[in-house]
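Page 42, continued from yesterday. The earlier attempt failed because a stray header line got pasted into the input along with the sequence. Redoing it now with the clean sequence only.
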Amino acid sequence: MVSKPIVYFGSVRSVSTSPEHSFVGKFDAIIDKLGIKKAVKDKNVVIKMHLGSNVGFSTVNPFLVGRLVGAIKSAGGRPYIVDIIDQYPEAWKRGYTPEVLGCPILPVAGPADRYYVEKDVNYKGLKTLKMGGHVKDADVLVDLSHVKGHNSIGYGAAIKNLAIGCFTQDTRWAMHSTMQYDKYWNKERSKDAEKLVKACPFKAISYKDGNLRVDFDTCNQCMRCMIADTDGCIQIKAENFLSFVEINAIATKFVLSHFEEDKRFYINVATNITEYCDCWGMTTGQILPDLGVLGSRDIVAVDKASLDLLANMPLLKENVSQNLEVNDDPSLHPFARIHGPYKDPYNVIQFAEKYGLGSSNYALEEVLPPIPEPKRSEPRFPKIGKKF
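This time it went through. Structure tokens are written below.
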């Protein structure tokens, strides 16, 4: 019988105010439990993380990154951090510098975005995946991810961090373009395309030079365009959205193929959870309460556990940007309530499992868990100006 992959979880709630029980203490404990230090001696260790952009500041705190780097170096490893060429130049503005983190920071495919290895895929118009060479150069992979919503697939964390963040810019754009492959508009039937444009409150539909285009990254499947469509010319179908999810799984599999199974580690930091991906370059209000940190040696398990725990948390509707629309269907995951039912974040898990990236059937092990509230006598707090 195959054992379930373990997902270690450290809650933001603490038993006490001691450093051991703090969030950082739990982060350190998960690094130990994953066995990272046992795998890195005399090895090149690539840490893939998102460095943020523009005015965004909700990525993984540099102090935590430094703890991970320090743990790897203490065990004789040679760590370095990579991210895409877009985020690299201004990483220092968010505190990501070699001096602060303790290791080099490199653009994943080199300073000209031309250092990569290729894989032919021929998937919905995408011919080739170009993975950054600085990922290939490593012996050990640590996938350090910030958990957040994602306007294209509903959710971004461990899988998305590798699927998009390890590839060249032209590959990333081509991956997004797979959503345009399946036909959704019948030009011959369409008599008034402009009314479809006007029907979309999210400006996800454009019409130019006789061609209509739906921006599936922005579309939240409100179906107002189909309601306005009296010609039967447009269809908003799940297939277009799922194309991007599937190519994420394909790309992640290519990344993982360069590392032995016991040389892959995944850490998800689920704090400062915003509605959009960090690549949007801004930090909005938190749409979910802080959860904690999760770690596993199974990429599917760590993302599934993150989603499962967040599914039970209240959506902070007051923090959702006003240009978005919240679906009140309680059966939907909080991320799908913002980005639409076709962007159900569990689609990411299903395709990752289909491509053999790991297992969604995990065992959760809490690290330094909170204890039941102790029974105390009723307090009698003093009132200002009155005798006790």
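Notes: The chain has a mean pLDDT of 96.
Reminder to self: strip header lines before submitting.
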